[in-house]
Amino acid sequence: MTESTTLDIWNPGWPDPFRPTVDADDEYADLVDALREVQEAVTRSLPTPEAAAEAAATLREVARQMRSHEVDEDTQIAGKRWDIPGKAHALAPVLHIDTVTDTTATGRVTVGRFHSGRYAMNGGVTPLIFDELLARLANSAGRPWGRTAYLNVNFRALAPLHTELTVTAELVGQEGRKRFLRGAMYHGDILVADVDGLWVELKPEQTQNISKDLEGRDR
Ligand SMILES: CCCCCCCC/C=C\CCCCCCCC(=O)SCCNC(=O)CCNC(=O)[C@H](O)C(C)(C)COP(=O)(O)OP(=O)(O)OC[C@H]1O[C@@H](n2cnc3c(N)ncnc32)[C@H](O)[C@@H]1OP(=O)(O)O
């Protein structure tokens, strides 16, 4: 099995505004893992009113602690740990990216009840997973930064929970600034979903706009 840590963390073509300026360490990744544990445990629970009130107070205390360490979005680590599955973002499914070539990418993902629709993966989660893998491929191999223009997902069969699913992506064509990608998700041999995606390479001024937006946002 290929470790995702063997992949390049940053594509040099990606704009600087997204580059984390704080070095993440494993304690931060562990914090996000703990948050994932909370999300799954809360989702699976039916606490008594007293237990719910106690847990809510504890979680609000954690939020208070974290607010005292607040940084701006350019500096935050969440979602930017390209070297670890799930990128240290608690909403993102933990996608293990095994291979990325110039034109293909593969990964594996297992979701729990936090990401469940009902006894199967929620229909909004599948696009999150495809977007992650297809975007990684679209913006790899030194290609300049592109943004998702569309992601057309077909749900072919229920995607089971607590079960490893494989995800594949392929760059199927390029026309000027447009990159066409295709992806699929499998449970064993069963196709559970497939996707057509378009990534459009940003013009330089579009990258600057992003940068300005980031600088101008409220903290
Ligand atoms: C919950 C979990 C979270 C996980 C953790 C995440 C944390 C991440 C943290 C840190 C990461 C750092 C990195 C982050 C970066 C994020 C990037 C995104 O997420 S992208 C978000 C979604 N996508 C948008 O919001 C695009 C919005 N749309 C646009 O910006 C524009 O529409 C854009 C750039 C896609 C195209 O606009 P134009 O003005 O540049 O170009 P025009 O001329 O309109 O199109 C060029 C060609 O593409 C076709 N085209 C454009 N859109 C199309 C469409 N929807 N369908 C078909 N064709 C389309 C056009 O027809 C045209 O084709 P012809 O050249 O004429 O052949």
TrEMBL record:
<keyword id="KW-0053">Apoptosis</keyword>
<dbReference type="Pfam" id="PF03061">
    <property type="entry name" value="4HBT"/>
</dbReference>
<comment type="similarity">
    <text>Belongs to the THEM4/THEM5 thioesterase family.</text>
</comment>
<protein>
    <recommendedName>
        <fullName>Acyl-coenzyme A thioesterase THEM4</fullName>
        <ecNumber>3.1.2.2</ecNumber>
    </recommendedName>
</protein>
<keyword id="KW-0966">Cell projection</keyword>
<keyword id="KW-0276">Fatty acid metabolism</keyword>
<keyword id="KW-0809">Transit peptide</keyword>
<keyword id="KW-0472">Membrane</keyword>
<dbReference type="GO" id="GO:0016787">
    <property type="term" value="F:hydrolase activity"/>
</dbReference>
<keyword id="KW-1003">Cell membrane</keyword>
<dbReference type="InterPro" id="IPR029069">
    <property type="entry name" value="HotDog_dom_sf"/>
</dbReference>
<keyword id="KW-0443">Lipid metabolism</keyword>
<dbReference type="InterPro" id="IPR006683">
    <property type="entry name" value="Thioestr_dom"/>
</dbReference>
<keyword id="KW-0963">Cytoplasm</keyword>
<keyword id="KW-0378">Hydrolase</keyword>
<feature type="domain" description="Thioesterase">
    <location>
        <begin position="121"/>
        <end position="189"/>
    </location>
</feature>
<dbReference type="InterPro" id="IPR052365">
    <property type="entry name" value="THEM4/THEM5_acyl-CoA_thioest"/>
</dbReference>
